[in-house]
Amino acid sequence: MSLFVPYTPKAKECVSATLKILKLSIYLFLSCLIISCTKEDNTGETPEIIPDTTLVDRHGLLQVDGNKIVNKGGEPVSLAGNSFFWSNDNWGGERYYTPEVVAWLKEDWNTTIVRAAMGVEDPGGYLDNKPVNKDRVKTIVDAAIDVGIYVIIDWHSHHAEDHTDEAVNFFQEMATLYGEYDNVIYELYNEPLDISWSNTIKPYALTVISAIRTIDPDNLIVVGTPVWSQRVDLAAADPITGYSNIAYTLHFYTIYHQQWLRDRASAALESGIALFVTEWGSIGYSLVDSEANEWMTWCFTNKISHCNWAVNDKEEEWSILIPGASTTGGWSEDDLTDAGKLAKNIIVNWPGLTP
Ligand code: MG
Question: Which of 171, 121, 161, 110 minimizes the C-alpha distance to 141?
């Protein structure tokens, strides 16, 4: 998420009139997905239950296959989970980088993927304080491995091409530590600004991918796209070649990004690249947000994985927690913001994969 995206609460006046409709529509949407999923399993055979295995044990290394991301059995997967906030010192969100929060999200939200968003060039980020920011990321990765869910290691930058050597060193260290774990996904560049894909972002990505692949030949790598990871069409027109298991980042925030971005993303998929929604944000039930439904239907239809922004208690529209909520999980419904309640409703009911 950009720090600097302006927000106008233009829909607040419509609260009560739309609240019931929105809740009902989301309920119906999720019910349909669950029914659909149940039908697929209703083959007359007893579902195979394998005790003492984790989600990642069952699904293994994620692989790009055409425009889909598939499990070790070649089946498309759609993960639903949470992104942590910027890891930067004293920004607030770093307090939630605890193993207890990861375990709580897995148990209480059915979260199947978390994302550690390591701030890079901004104050208090990696370039200011490498050991502590790196330890925060490792805390989340280790916790995700412990509970058997997927985890994204996100270089949370808007100017990654200015520090390519730092990214290379960081990801080589992460690949050395975690390259053997099927849980791990590398995200090389959170949100490039309005810069050239072919002349700036792609060369940066190729340098970092090359460095990772000398250590870890196979884990999924996700590459950010221009204009806050909305110009997936530019990546689709000039995709990365020479390396396997590469997907591209799509971000959406429901009050800004609507059908026009879904159309663009659908066209990118049709051209053959795989997409990964490493961030999405909603304003929750209290404001008009039928777009959340539209986007989730699109993600489900296209088997796209997604992480909700963000695990934090900052007083802003995207935070899932109210100020002062526990930094070790155990949250009641009263601890969740409107955005948090909406996100939880979607994630906890997301069909297809059981943590
Ligand atoms: Mg590997």
Answer: 171
Q: Which two tokens stand for residue 33?
A: 């997905």
Return the CATH superfamily for domain 55-348. Answer: Glycosidases (3.20.20.80)
User: Does 336 have pLDDT greater than 60?
Assistant: yes
- Cα(144)–Cα(79) distance, integer angstroms: 14
161 is a catalytic site residue: no
Put simply, whether the predicted model's pTM sits higher than 0.90 gets the answer: no
- E-state strands within 160-304: 184-187, 221-223, 246-253, 275-281
CA of 227 to the centre of ligand 1 (A): 30
pLDDT per position as a tens digit, 158-195: 999 999 999 999 999 999 999 999 999 999 999 999 99
> 133 alpha carbon to ligand 1 midpoint, in Å?
23
Q: Is 94 a catalytic residue?
A: no
pLDDT number for residue 31: 45
The per-residue pLDDT for range 254-291, each reduced to its tens digit, is 989 999 999 999 999 999 999 999 999 998 765 557 88
* Dihedral angle sign, alpha carbons of residues 33, 319, 116, 141: negative
Domain boundaries in the chain? 55-348
